[in-house]
Design brief:
Shape: globular
Oligomer: single chain
Number of helices: 1
Strand order of the largest sheet: 1-2-3-4
Mean pLDDT: 79
């Protein structure tokens, strides 16, 4: 491989075109967030970069933080801990949906907008097992989920929750 010096690095990226534009958000260092629960389950930004979302194993709530105000609201509550969550791809038909893998099941919700006080609305739910992971396919049409105890992976239709395939034969 060829090593590039810092002075030649900008030349390597000239063909990438102009830098993409992003929504204007305040400098995060100026937003004071109140103390919150221990973060274990990951966090992510909404597509418009206006909300930070998180939930964790010991947390039964998915928290929605308004980036501009630093205010937290509960997006949804489960009867047992949320292990992780995933946001549908931006260009998917279900782009405003979030899938939650929790100890009490798997569920799909619609995401509220950052400027509303609404909570996430339930679209479908499966309470047949505890789930430990979830991911959307790149086109947003499928959701892959993993059972906590067996490792069984199910591929579901993202809009209906119908199981389309099961992967249980791991080497």
């Amino acid at each position: 491989g060829v090593l590039a010096s810092p002075s030649t690095m900008p030349d390597l990226f000239d063909d990438l075109g102009p830098e993409p534009s992003y929504p204007a958000v305040p400098n995060i260092s100026h937003v004071q967030f109140s103390r919150c629960k221990t973060l274990r389950g990951g966090c992510w930004f909404t597509h418009d970069a206006q909300m930070l979302v998180h939930g964790g194993v010991h947390d039964k709530e998915l928290s929605l933080w308004n980036i501009r105000t630093g205010q937290r609201r509960v997006g949804l509550s489960r009867s047992d801990g949320i292990v992780t969550s995933a946001l549908a791809p931006l260009d998917a038909a279900c782009g405003s949906m979030v899938c939650v893998a929790a100890l009490d099941g798997l569920a799909m919700y619609t995401m509220p907008t950052s400027d509303s006080d609404e909570t996430c609305d339930l679209v479908w739910e499966s309470t047949d097992a505890a789930y430990c992971d979830v991911a959307f396919s790149p086109d947003g049409k499928l959701v892959a989920s993993a059972h906590c105890k067996t490792g069984l992976v199910q591929l579901r239709d993202a809009e209906t929750g119908r199981v389309r395939a099961v992967v249980d034969d791991f080497p």
